[in-house]
Amino acid sequence: MLSKKHLLAAAIGLSLSFSTQASELETLINMLHENGMVTDAQYGRLMDELAANKTTQAQEKAAIDEKLAEATKPSDVEISTQGGLTLKTRDGQFSTKVGGRVQVDAATYGGSPDMGDGTDIRRARLYLSGTLYRDWGYKLEYEFDNSSITDAFITYDGFENYQIMVGNFKDPFSLDYMISANNTMFMERALPTAFNAGRHIGVMGARNSQYWTVAAGVFGDTVGNTGGEDDEGWGWSTRGTLSPINEPGKLLHIGLGLNYRDLQPNNTVRFSQAPESNVSGVRIVDTSAIDNADSMLKTGLELATVIGPFTAQAEYIRTSVDRDNISNADFDGWYVQSSYLLTGESRPYKNGVFGGIKPNHRVGDGGIGAWEVAMRYSSLDLNDGAINGGEADSMTLGLNWYPVPMLRFSADYVHVLDIDGGPDFDGKKPNVFQVRSQWAF
């Protein structure tokens, strides 16, 4: 049995210790009571005080735990800097992304006609996009190079696999044009891009699935184009795609597009094209203004395939211009292009368009990035009857390097095989060597 001296010393030490456990103190008080060290009255008071201390300590611990939980709980907002700055709520209700692109070109020209060597900021854009209340989306993109708005639209995605879009955006037409300029095989799109549908203000509905897509919209005019006292032009556009084979590294794509434009109020239209290069700005084929144009209809047929690192893509586009009191005009163009990724990547595909290449092994992580070689033949015919816009055929060779997902460096060699007719360059054969550095985030 413990002596009275030892029991009192233990009691004093435990009572002064902040870390004393209530159960140990209660055991000690019971031992003191059993050994006659405290009276029944003292024992009752000590047990009451111990109970009060237990309550106080429990309250203090609860307060500390609450503050600790508040300080360490995760934020309601997730922040990501991969591929742009993205802020997203954890419940997925809201998100905001800041992105953009900068493309810097340099080109040197040979052969004829004379075209000045030089450099150019091909595109410099900044955009804001995101989600509102999970089902609503938005995007606003500004082009600094020509001080204009490119995309400005709102989407509703509340129906599974369906989308409704309102605002300013691309008319759904042509595979080559629907692919982002960040992700095209070559620095510039093929010669038939002279017939691209452009961007207009309108409303569009789309249905997307793994094996097929369809989109259709009705559009007014372009941003900033007003008709004054006259009505603005309007149009409609539709595009459908079928991909009976669609899995990573394997694709068969077939597409069909129609694009109609009423050419009010000016009743004119013009088609022209550069030699798949933008630095000099020289147009090697050009119809000039076609008067008495009432409307035009464009028809496009698309075909593409992916087999592992190999991609092939082709299109044919025909444009018919309906003219008042004069014969109609018909123009067409086509291209065939292919690429091979030497480092084994495969070109991604989703919702009827190709995406960007992401290297399997990044530079800086022990890899060499992704390397791609490409070849294209394209043709454009702007001659019809009295309209002598010229016909051009060109061959293009390309090399692309993707060191990391957001960077791309490209080099293209363009040889125009022949220019037949046209207002200025009949029989000319220009050559182009051009390079680009691109940062897209």
Q: If you had to describe this structure to a student in words, what would you say it looks like?
A:
Keywords: Signal. Pfam families: Porin_O_P. With 441 residues, the chain is mainly beta. The protein folds into two domains: 4-72; 102-122 and 165-197 and 205-440, Porin (Beta Barrel). Helix content is 14%, strand content 49%. The protein is built from four helices and 22 strands. The strands form three sheets. The protein has a 16-stranded antiparallel β-barrel with strand order 3-4-5-6-7-8-9-10-11-14-15-16-19-20-21-22. The chain has a two-stranded antiparallel ribbon with strand order 12-13. Strand 2 (85-89) and strand 3 form a beta hairpin. Helix 1 (4-16) packs antiparallel against helix 2 (22-34) and helix 2 packs antiparallel against helix 3 (40-72). The longest helix is centred in the first third of the chain and has 33 residues, at 40-72. 30% of the residues are buried. Mean pLDDT is 90; it is low at 11-19.
In short:
The chain is mainly β.
Please outline the helices and strands.
Layout (H helix, E strand, L loop, with lengths): L3 H13 L5 H13 L5 H33 L4 E4 L4 E5 L5 E16 L7 E15 L3 E8 L4 E9 L5 E9 L4 H4 L20 E10 L3 E8 L14 E14 L2 E13 L9 E2 L11 E2 L6 E15 L2 E14 L5 E13 L7 E2 L2 E2 L15 E15 L2 E16 L4 E14 L10 E10 L1
Antiparallel strand pairs: 1-2, 2-3, 3-4, 3-22, 4-5, 5-6, 6-7, 7-8, 8-9, 9-10, 10-11, 11-14, 12-13, 14-15, 15-16, 16-19, 17-18, 19-20, 20-21, 21-22
Helix pairs in contact: 1-2, 2-3
